[in-house]
Specification:
Blueprint lengths: L5 E3 L5 E5 L4 E4 L2 H8 L11 H11 L9 E2 L5 H9 L3 E5 L30 H15 L9 E8 L7 H13 L5 E9 L4 H10 L3 E5 L19 H14 L1 H7 E6 L6 H12 L4 E3 L11 H7 L3 H8 L6 H4 L4 H13 L18 E2 L11 E2 L1
Helix pairs in contact: 3-4, 4-5, 7-8
Length: 371
């Protein structure tokens, strides 16, 4: 019996974890003593706890859970996934009109394709859509009235609005009765004043990047090193004043944590000015250039620690209650170690894939998103 499986809580209660069944079992003191003995199965077989351990062993409680790599993913499932595609994400350009200090395509990182200031062509996009349409309209698509979200990605997507408009004009000209299209994009808002009428007309879901007030947004600069803050605020204010209903329903904010701001400052500024709770993320730690690690560490601000600090303010507890370290740790434990949990309702239908891992590094091929 592997006594290393025993877990002691802060209140000195003992539990044993089943890797095979993904569950924890409370262990009374008498049972703990048996588990810690090497000859547990040679003791009195009439003892209740001995019989219980025999029962657990017989039903696989102590077995190790094995991951089976699913490498022969059926072609029919790939077609079905594409036909039911939820999001088509198009990189319309790799150009950007800002040069943020912490950019994921910037000086700290080496794990991205070379940025060449190129725009995507409509011919490429049309080629892909023309491939998708027959599958969308086939019997492989089992969803009626399926919503396909087309996301426009950059660089800064608004730098290539010509392609955005061409793509939307084309998919809407197809008049696919079984599909509804919605659109979204993330923008630095530098060109928002120029294109906001069109974005509102097409009911875009808009995610605006902003790190808080002027000082907190200090890393968001243009190609000449000049701050973008005042122009961004002016454009976002104009959008809110011109289209208040749209702003309320479709506009959200994204903030990046670093050494110039905090979760409290991001939230307080954006909520105070625009009435929105921003999504707050920490700097990407993947693909760092080793020679720049020291410089990066000075800029880094841990997300969980920043939320913990924000929770010390009574008026922010309600906003951040699910973001503190305790909540994050509880969530992580539930997702990793508890078998009877579901991330979303689709997991209820996924029992056929239990214990099978598809080594794509993502979800099942094309099930959720195609980039």
């Amino acid at each position: 019996m592997d006594k290393s499986l025993l877990i002691t809580t802060g209140h000195q209660h003992r539990y044993i974890y089943s890797d095979a069944l993904r569950c924890f079992l409370y262990v009374p003191e008498k049972m703990v003593a048996l588990i810690e003995r090497k000859d547990v199965m040679a003791t009195d077989k009439d003892d209740y706890y001995v019989r219980k351990l025999h029962f657990l062993e017989k039903h696989g409680f102590f077995e190790k859970r094995e991951t089976v790599f699913q490498t022969n993913y059926p072609e029919e499932l790939v077609k079905r996934n594409i036909a039911g595609l939820r999001q088509l994400l198009i990189e319309v350009t790799d150009r950007c009109n800002l040069e943020c200090e912490y950019c994921g395509y910037g000086k700290f990182y080496s794990n991205y394709d070379k940025r060449e200031n190129n725009d995507q062509s409509f011919d490429n996009v049309k080629l892909l859509i023309d491939y998708l349409v027959p599958l969308w309209c086939s019997d492989y698509n089992t969803s009626h009235g399926n919503v396909v979200t087309i996301g426009f990605y950059g660089g800064e997507p608004l730098l290539n609005m010509k392609l955005v408009k061409e793509t939307i004009n084309y998919v809407e000209s197809l008049k696919l009765s079984n599909l509804t299209f919605s659109y979204n994009t993330t923008t630095n808002a530098m060109l928002l004043n120029r294109y906001m009428d069109y974005l509102v007309e097409k009911d875009f879901h808009l995610l605006v990047s902003l790190d808080g007030g002027e000082h907190q947004s200090g890393y968001r600069v243009d190609k000449h090193g000049k701050p973008s803050f005042s122009r961004v605020i002016e454009n976002v204010r104009k959008l809110k004043e011109t289209y208040p209903d749209y702003f309320e329903k479709r506009v959200n904010f994204n903030s990046v944590l670093h050494n110039l701001n905090s979760a409290e400052e991001c939230y307080s500024f954006i909520y105070g000015l625009f009435g929105k709770s921003p999504r707050i993320a920490q700097l990407n730690i993947t693909g760092l250039i080793p020679e720049r690690s020291e410089e990066f560490s000075k800029m880094f601000n841990d997300r969980v620690n920043s939320f913990d600090a924000a929770l010390l303010h009574e008026d922010l507890k309600e906003a951040f209650i699910m973001e503190d370290s305790h909540s994050v740790n509880y969530h992580s434990m539930l997702m990793r170690y508890i078998g009877n949990r579901y991330a979303n309702y689709l997991d209820l239908f996924d029992t056929c894939w239990e214990d099978r891992y598809i080594p794509t590094g993502t979800c099942r091929p094309f099930e959720r998103k195609l980039f």
